[in-house]
Amino acid sequence: MERHESKAETNPFEAMVSRFNVAAEKLNLDEGLYQILLTADREISVAIPVQMDNGKLKVFKGYRVQHSLARGPAKGGIRYAADVTLEEIRALAAWMTWKCAVVNIPFGGAKGGIICDPSTLSMGELEKITRRYTASLIDVLGPERDVPAPDINTDEKVMAWIMDTYSMHVRHTVTAVVTGKPLDLGGSVGRREATGRGCKIVCDRAISRIGMRRETTRVIIQGFGNVGSMAARILYEAGYQIIGISDVHGGILNTLGINITKLFAYVQEAKTVVGFLGAEPIAGKELLEYPCDILLPAATENQITSQNADRIKARIICEGANGPTTAQADEILYDKKIFIIPDILANAGGVTVSYFEWVQDRQGYFWNLKTVNERLEEIMVNSFDTVAGYADRHGVNMRIAAYMLAIDRVAYTIRERGIYA
């Protein structure tokens, strides 16, 4: 079977393909299915003309990639960033397919993005961009087709604009067209904390697997956005020792443990962890390589590469972000016997509760927080144990096991459905 070769270590699509190839070989995947599973069902580029606040017209570029619809509607976030590329969106869409399959929820994978710098745009300009982007994709979105969610630089407000634009076009309110909405518009309790809570659940399983206890487990978190901050709070409340945290401005370290409650209050005012009096300052790069039991990268892609992997001193890496570790870094980390909980498992709590939100919207009946968290825990625990069982049975690491499980599930669905011609 012909295999793709990695063109560049930090190319997200090639990184996904390199892991896919290993898993596909282990599964002895048919050549035809290999091609189907690596090819996106649909890739859409849209021009987004907007009249700016100064009266001038400006055209933005937007993308939506639907990687797979085999197991259900496409599911995936929309990000607004100046460095968005089609290659990145393509990789993230495929990762969403595998992520949904790993936790066995009935979605395929998608991802969207608009090339823009939100920090330079007014609220009105952002709303115009969002609504025009949604209108351009109106024929491919919908509760049964493609269900977007928030991602980098998008939030509940952006999801509300998408829901409203879609609803206006179809002439009735459709809350299930997006997830991550405000509660009053059909959002779910527990959604905001879901990715961080999922990270805590798999960390619990990982430390149990290697005989550690929460109270003596030192955690370093890279990133203090939604995922990093929620993971910090939930791990702290569960008894873990959070000794280091970084954001885009720098890092803080306290080997005796950081008081996360006080840190939250500080960050609310300062908008950064830097300067917090309950810890010492440390460079973000240096913190990433500081000795700890759990390293939780929750920032962006390509943070652990072949250039710094040999200096990572964690026992466990829990990937809160998508693609924080390159394929080349994987080999170095596994040689060092570091236990990696891969992104498509570790941060799947977010899409799991997004699925819960979609289900609640469609049935018009909403669950309480206890129900949401209990069902999230059940799915994350079962998924971790299934992946770990795959890893033990096939003699592979957790990442390859997760890919094998996901690919096997999607491939099975395609075989059962057959190919329409």
Would you write up a description of this structure?
By secondary structure, this protein is of the alpha/beta class. Among the domains are: 40-175, Leucine Dehydrogenase, chain A, domain 1 (Rossmann fold), CATH 3.40.50; 194-346, Rossmann fold, CATH 3.40.50. It has helices spanning 12-27, 31-38, 86-102, 123-136, 156-170, 194-209, 226-237, 260-270, 284-288, 327-335, 343-346, 349-363, 369-394, 398-417; strands at residues 42-51, 57-66, 74-81, 108-115, 146-150, 218-222, 241-247, 250-253, 280-282, 294-297, 316-318, 339-341. It has a 7-stranded mixed sheet. A 5-stranded mixed sheet has the order 1-2-4-3-5. Strand 7 and strand 8 (250-253) form a beta hairpin. Helix 3 packs across helix 14 (398-417), helix 4 packs across helix 5 and helix 12 (349-363) crosses helix 13. Residues 1-6 have low confidence and may be disordered.
Annotation keywords:
421 residues; alpha/beta; Rossmann fold; 45% helix
Task: Tell me the layout of helices and strands.
Blueprint (H helix, E strand, L loop, with lengths): L11 H16 L3 H8 L3 E10 L5 E10 L7 E8 L4 H17 L5 E8 L7 H14 L9 E5 L5 H15 L23 H16 L8 E5 L3 H12 L3 E7 L2 E4 L6 H11 L9 E3 L1 H5 L5 E4 L18 E3 L8 H9 L3 E3 L1 H4 L2 H15 L5 H26 L3 H20 L4
Parallel strand pairs: 3-4, 3-5, 6-7, 6-10, 10-11, 11-12
Antiparallel strand pairs: 1-2, 2-4, 7-8, 8-9
Helix pairs in contact: 1-3, 1-14, 3-14, 4-5, 6-7, 6-12, 6-13, 12-13, 13-14
